[in-house]
Batch of 2 targets.
Target 1
Amino acid sequence: MSYIEFKNVCKEYKMGEVIIKALDNANFKIEKGELVVIVGPSGAGKTTALNILGGMDSATSGDVLVDGKNVSSLKNKELIKYRREDIGFVFQFYNLVQNLTAIENVELATQICKNSLSPDSVMEKVGLADRKKNFPSQLSGGEQQRVAIARAIAKNPKLLLCDEPTGALDYKTGKQILKLLQDTARKENMTVLIITHNAAIAPMADKIIRFKNGKAESIEVNENPVPVEQIEW
Amino acid sequence: MKKGKIHKPPKHKEKRKTVMKKALLKDAFKEIKVSYKRFISILLMALLGVGFFAGLRATSPDMVNTIDEYFKAQNVYDIQVMSTLGLTDGDVEAIKNVENVESVYGTYSKDGLINLDDKEVVSKILCVEDINKPLLVEGSMPQNQNECVVEEDFLKNANKNIGDYIQIEPEKDENSSQESEDFLKEKEMKIVGTVKSLLYISRDRGTSKLGSGTVDYYIYVSKDNINSDVYTEIYVKLKDSQKYTTSSSRYEKYVDETKQKIEEIKDERQKARYDELIGEANSKIQDAENELNTEKQNAEQQIKEAEEKIQSGKDEITNGENEIKANEEKAQKQFANAEAQLNTAKNKLKTSENEYNTKKEEAQKKFQEAEAQKQTLQTNLTTIENGLNELNASYNEIIQKLQNPNLSQEEKVILEQTKTQLETQIAELENNKKSVQSGINQIDTQIQSGKAELEKAKSQIESAKAQISSQEKQLTRTKASTNSQIETAKSQIETSKQEIQKAEEELQKSKTEFDEKIKEAEGKIIDAKDEVAKIENPTWYILDRNQNSGYASFIQDTESIENLSMVFPIVFFAIAILVSLTSMTRMVEEERQEIGTLKALGYNKFHISLKYIIYSSLACIIGAIIGMNIGFQLLPRIVWDMYEMMYTMPSITVLYNYEYSTLGLFLIYICIVGATLYSILKELKDAPATLLRPKAPKLGKRVLLERITPIWKRLNFSQKVTIRNIFRYKKRFLMTIIGIFGCTSLILAGFGLKDSISKILPYQYEKIFNYDIQVSLKSGLDNENRQELITNLKNNAQINEVVETYMISGTASKEENQEDIQIIVPQDNNELDKVIKLYDLKENKINLNEDGIVITDKLAQLINAKVGDTITVKDTNDVEKELKIVNIAENYISHYVYMSKSLYEKIYEENCIPNVLLIQDKELTKEQESDLSREIVEQNQVSTVSLTSTIMTTLDDTMNSLNYVVIILIVSAGLLAFVVLYNLSNVNISERIRELATIKVLGFYDKEVYSYINRETTLLTIIGIILGLGGGYLLNFYIIGTCEIDMLRFVKVIDPLSYLYAILITVAFTIIVNIFTYFALKKIDMIGSLKSVE
């Protein structure tokens, strides 16, 4: 059994009279420690899948298994617990708490987790040891995203979910962030999922899932992932 | 639209403008749909602001209007005239002629006792008139003299129904010397209905000399049932009073003017009444005197007659006695004559008897002789007879022999011969015999006639004897009868004598009695004359509605409400400004990019702001209109409902008050739309480019506290976050604090007001006044009598202290300010302290001295006087004195001027004679106290007795009415707190939605998310409460200042418990809002919130 399994997951939204199927029998599997990149055009259902996987949304039907746990059947409070202990999120727009310093943003996450990592060490890991006392507004976009990643990984989650983590960053910075994510997956043996519309970065992944019309159209296992530094786009 | 196009010809511009406006309008409406919560919160602020403003402002006028309508409908009086000696038709006529007077009604009223099953109640007996018509609630008005109507409460409390009968005993007139007639003709009356009286709209029915001393109810009777020759009061209705609203200044002025005019005829009428009374009394006395004199004469005449009668009786007796004597003598004489005659007769008889006896003896002799002759004759006869017999026998033998047939012829012849011989012999003998026989017969006849003669004489004597004897008997009888007649006459005379004796005695008695009576009557007349001399000049009391306690307290209550209505809306408007400012600022911030776009597109400031102005105007106008409608309907009714417990009146007429609604709308419009304009214009100052870029989020900043490392270090992570957040959103932080502050301070002010009010009574009657009974002495009491009473009272085991004082009411004035006061002069300055404790405003004891007077603190404030000032004090005797204030004393009810006896005597140049005793009793139960007061009032030196406890009970009711103000305060505070906090919480959530979504994504439990926000709210609430307690303290004083009635000084003390209540209630409101927040937080959509660009 795989570490993560998406089995016949459907997600329907009701927009007035119309029912929109964001996920239509999506199926995929992910192994522990894999770096997965999910690609596909806008509206293909990547984000919905990620949200369901991250416990932020629930599936209309189907099963989502994470480390043997059926996430789709969790109740609200269990879902929060799942988010709290098993999931780390990184967003396109960092979503840092503006009123907290970098390290405090990390602490915000660690203080609620049992197996959290030390905020300082995580800050060091993301290379911001010297800027940890700065407020988000005093940091560049890349730095802010690093803080966001630090905040996600500090929880020591089973799964690190990143939704367009480079979407708001320039090429160079984006690359650095992807590097950080790849390193994290490798070094920490963390399962990392990255959503992107930029197919060019797919080679960095262990597994590439392509979404189209609410389905995982293809799942490709990349035997030889390329280090981020070597990817150009 | 591009900027360049604005230079097109105006015609097109107009067209475009319309189009443009349409789009903007559409946008505005869309915006309302989208952000309906914000719209509603602004609408709600407008609603509350205007609702409270208009509703509360309208309450007082509505109340006044209701009482005005009620009064006018019942044909209310404008001026009431009463007199100490009653009023007459002459007075009515005189008042009728006063300018402005439309109609004058003389009417009657009196207190009466009604005996119910278990208690006795005092009722005011009023008379149904065209003026002050009672409002019929149920049943019908009294038509006959044995019908009455009562108030509903009476039926309820007395457990009676319409159709039942009650018995009422009217108060007797004390003043009139003679037995006064009853005020009512029919004392048992049938209840035919229930009414409301405008004269008694409050529970206060006044005091009475009867029963418990307070009037419990009123009843109305038909005029037919009244038996009184003078009116007890006159009600005057003025010509133009219908035009004015009651209690309005124009009305007051109009009434005052007329009162002044009535005041002008007062003296004349008083004198007329006095003269009339004196005249009446004098003529009565004259009548009495005349009657007395006639009576006297009559009596004297009668006595004289009686005396004469007695005299004549006496004379008659004498006559009778004489007559009897004469009669007696006469009878005696007659008797003597008769006896003499009788004796003569007797003597005669004796002679006759003697004669008779002699005759008898003679006759006896003769008889004997005759007898002897007879005897001889008889013997002759016998011899003859014998011879005869022999002859006969011989003859018979011869016959027999002759018969014998054997007999020879011869023998026969012989025998015949012999026979013939014999026959001759026999015949001879027979002749002899016959002659002897006749001799005997002759003698017998002689004897017989002699005897008859004798017999005759004897019988003659016998009859004479009998005659005499009968005469004798008759005489004896006559004597006896005459004697008895005389005796009877004598005894009759004796009786007459006794009778006369009695009559004389009686006469004597009646004479003395009569003398006494006359004396008494004369004495009475003298007394009556004395009393007439004592008849006081009548005093008129010219009153208006303000002296009707129910009306006055009602008007005062409307004034309190009006004062409140000045304060509260200000708070609401302030909050409305703040809330709409935050809401609109937030809205403008949220739509920053849109504004930027529009600005970039070339819209001018006006067009851009139009949307927001329309948005806020709509919220404001809709809210205001709903608010004023609710306010106008609801607030006056709520307030009325509260006051309805205290006042008996028809239900309130709620008016739509255009003045206040327009003003309220105008004010709230300025507040809300002003706030909107402010925030939009502030934003519009920026260049379009800046606007198009997302507004830099509020930068994270270190707060001052972080620099104080020792403290900062000690805080845990969440505390640090909380503190930093609080300082980050300064506006909201302020708003929350102000909201909580307002809430707490309103509640505290409310409770504080209640504390202030509820402490007035204990402070006045326990702290300052320590006496329990106030005894007014009769006027003109001499020292000895007074001392006797005091000694008696002091010896009473239930009494602690008796303090003598002189009290008189009057006025105190300084410049144009004037207040009614009570002057108190203790007999002994040190004694006063036992019953009245005088403290200055710094709680130091005050001692009265000769330098000047001590006035109470509220008086000082009202007439604007300080220590050292000189004020004018005028007592009811119209004596005016200039007095210097040496101290100001703590006091809570009414106004007092205290001065020492020595000062009084120096200033007034007369002796200060105590007229009031202040008595402190030992701890007594209510019953004991009322028994004691009854005991005291029965003393003949005592005029009236009033119990402090009774005064306290009455005042307590009044004070309770102010509790409603507290309820209004608390309810509005709650509403305020709720609206503000709810709104702030919404703004807070919407402004920080991203942050909240983030922490939710991070896996914060609902409770943790809630406490993340709530920690800030809690801290702000605590700060708000602390400040609010201070603010409430100040607000309390402000409200006290506005609500305080002239007669009262509110106690400026807030009970610690009130602080606690204020805190608890505020916390409760906060918790309610927090519950809403909790659910709002729970509903936050993480995905949606995190998607957008920041």
Target 2
Amino acid sequence: MLGYIIRRILAVIPVMVIVAIFVFLLLRLTPGDPAAIIAGDSATPAQIQRIRESLGLADPLHIQFITWMGQLAQGDLGTSIISNQPVTRLIGQRIWPTLQIGTLTIILSVLIAVPLGVLAAWRHRTWADYAVMTFSVLGFSIPVFVIGYIFIKIFAIDLRWLPVQGYTPPGQDLQAFFTRAVLPCLTLATIYIALIARMTRASLLEVLGEDYVRTARAKGVKEHVVLFRHALRNAAVPIMTIIGTGFALLISGVVVTESVFNIPGIGRLTVDAILARDYPVIQAMILLTSAIYVFINLLIDISYTFFDPRIRY
Amino acid sequence: MQFRNRPFDTAPVALKIEKLTVRTANDDDAVKILDQIDVTIREGETVCLVGESGSGKSVTSLAIMGLLPKGALEVAGGRVELDGMNLLDLDASTMRKLRASRISMIFQEPMTALNPVMKVGDQIEEVLDSHTKLPAREKKKRVIDIMEQVHLPDVERIYGSYPHQLSGGQRQRIMIAMALILEPKLLIADEPTTALDVTTQNQVLKLIAELQERHGTAVLFITHDMGVVAEIADTVYVMRHGKIVESAPIETLLRSPQKDYTRNLLEAVPSLIPRDARPLADGAPALDVEGLTKVYDTRSFFGRGRETRAAQDVRFAIRPGRTLGIVGESGSGKSTVARCIMRLIDPTDGRITVGKADIAKLGRAALQPHRKHIQIVFQDPFRSLNPRWKVGDSLIEGPLNFGQSRKQALDHARELMELVGLPPDALGRYPHQFSGGQRQRIAIARAIAMRPDVLVADEAVSALDVSVQAQVLKLLDDLQEKLGIAILFITHDLRVAAQICDDVVVMQHGRIVEHDTAGNVLSRPQHEYTRALIDAAPGRRWDFANFRELATA
Amino acid sequence: MAAQPQPTSAMQVVLGAIQLPRRWRLGFGPILAALVLIVIVVATASAYLYVPHNPMSMDALQRLKGPSETYWLGTDPYGRDLFSRVMVGGQVSLLIGVAAAIVSVLIGLVIGLISGFFRMADALIMRVMDALMAIPSILLAIALVALVGPSVGSVIFAITIPEVPRVVRLVRSVVLSAREEPYVEAAIALGSSMPKILWKHLMPNTLAPLIVQGTYICASAILTEAILSFLGAGVSTEIPTWGNIMAEGRMFFQIKPELIFWPGLLLSLCILSINLLGDTARDLLDPRLKKREA
């Protein structure tokens, strides 16, 4: 098992290196002068020159790469073109709201989605199943921001139950934090719940057709024990996998949701960077979110050993 | 042959099935899967339900257990009586309480029938959890006790093991322990030894008989294997198309079957007496294998390389017009040898001479011209033809690769269809329109279309029902006589080997342990392992086709 | 190595026989979905034939008007007719969806076939695909659009690239399992060349899953276009798309939510129909796909 874990950890390295190379090349291989593209149409030659220097675009490609990787290794993600601040500092200032909302969303989603999926599989081809599946397809089909605005319209504008938007740090006022976090979390959770519930249902249905489930029934085991002890544990690996890969959706959702609800997190930072063409920030965000994604999926890979004793190689 | 021949007329009835009818749950055009079945099982009796695929024998067992797949099959009438109750009338919770305590069941595939993520001890204990309220220590004691009764070694260790850490035979013992821990009145065994090797099968059959004796359990044993039936049955029910064709005490049935279907079924069982060897032609061997070795490296992460020798120093030769069989149990390396010879995998060492050329080390391009001399027929007729291709296209695939025109190849294909006993219009149809036996004929025709010198048949009749098996073996025999091909026949079944092989190679753990004429290997085995294999063959003292004991030479 | 007989049980034969007709029986949902989709596609494609106003012409006097006889759904912050804009906007959104689906499926098919059949290439290709999948697709698309420019073509390109790895993985997994099939081994024994086996035996296995995957990509591409526009990284704002119309409505959401809801409704209906049809296609073409793609 230790061998498996070490191998999983080592497998992360090439992926992150390729991500880094990819991000590096993205800017450099773009047709035309990247500095001019970043500076925008109305830029003066002096501005373009300044950008070219600050990104080190004048050097030969391999020198640029070595310098860039060297900086990365020291934790230097570059400097914002707009605010002239180190990107790491900008991210440090903005990351907490995102982490709080994100964590709440994941917990909320898993707590809602897995029981929904189990219900749908258990009551296969009944109204409960159809209801869950309908919700799930709807969740995939409506853009995140439209969901957000629908929630705002219903719960904040019409019913006046919750504030429209904004963010309060939990350390400052816990209740205010939660009332303002409810809608963004629900918005963000919709697609994630849809995804996880769908996968839970599908893999549970598959497992319920397995021979060992028939054996359990032939032993006279009670139906709820069959469902939870035998079926759900065997379905856990694909469910965990989808929680991991679905994390990418969550990251995209964060960017959108934070601007709908005006939350000063790294999602907003990204949107502001897009509008201002602040390329170093965009680049750093890609690296950071990829690293988080890879790390989460590494944890999930390792968690397989807990669910399935056969993974020991 | 010693039959069980025990009288049961006076024993109390354990389970009585009357006019049981099961049909598809599809309301518009329901098909009857079981049609008015009557079966009576008495205490301590072993009833064998025997039939070919599609006869409805497994459905019978699931109907008794109340485990018919919901929405697909449903009971349409009849009674299943146990302890004076009609099981078909019971509600779900009462039925659940009867399972494992009054009737229990074991299945064909012990790997998939056990939950892969639960320790096997816990899986046995779960039966007690579901039906009793024993203290934890008592439960563990009972589990250990039943595990000892099924003769599992090192019980404490196996108690804490997961299914994938056990062998096939051990897994089936766990299943049996699970089924018998509450001493049920009836044990239903659905092909419980079909997935096991013959020596393991023998042990499991003995174990079931032993426990049955000890606990007085009635056993309903479902199988397609007449040899197994002869070994264990008190009473036999022959099923076909959802109906009982005939039922009788075992010896009566084997000596004087009343119905034609039963007679045909028995006559199709291949005999263990080796056939007469085909004439030995002069000249060079069509296939000559020397020192063939295949080593798999399973490298662990920390660099401790572990080698698995799947085949080691295998040597044999086959002359034109002769058949050499490789027999052995699973893991013996017989299929590895076949795949190496076909160059579907690369041998680690050795020479494979086909005609005059050694093909063991040739690269992909250099190998291509030699491919036409050696062809293969696989085990599974449902997967060996591309389902998207018309039969004709499959048949001419090879000839087109070797420069024949489409028309030439199709003309030849038409002749081949006749040769393998299929109508010429079969060429225009798709594989799913044919039965398993017909598909295997097509696969043989496809191989023959290349006019090969050597044909490798890798378990080519193992997936077929016994009557179809006999026809396909006959076809191979005829083709060989007409075309003078050398055949390498891989099989786990000694009966099949006896019927088709001139020479036999016995393999164990990747090595050849015995190599002689079929007559010598089967009648005067030299190696201990060969003897064990032959001893384990079920029903080996009975001559099924002639309805009498085997005349011992 | 399992060379033991495994007779097909009566059960499998029966289940196979009765499920076939049932599987082909379409429910009410898929038919409705197909109708909705056809109506939306025809209505947007022919929009210029019937829309009452030029979707681009601004009128400062008619800003943010409510629904009326002249302006059926009212007007936007620049006084443009919302109905005309929504109907015309669908053209570009749908075009992006279909184009992204086709291009990513084609690229993914080629790379996936190579990866599934040539072990040498496989390790490298799959590492690159892993890396591409690690980058959140929206951010990757944003970066690509930011660099290549806000044209329709570059948005299609930006949406396509993140979808490719998923197609590659799908094709590769189908090829890897199909190449173990005895009929493929028989083809090797019959002397068929590798390209022939790849194209004639293996590739057809990928078609059904690719059609299903293609519909999902189409739906997700339409969604991604909307999100990109919403974030200001989409098609140039001069071209009306569902995403652009909603993005312009953001500022005025509290005054006039219709600016987001009408295009949002049409877009969601469209994606919903495509997703439902995708699910139906999946169930019809191969029930076993359910697990592979969720």
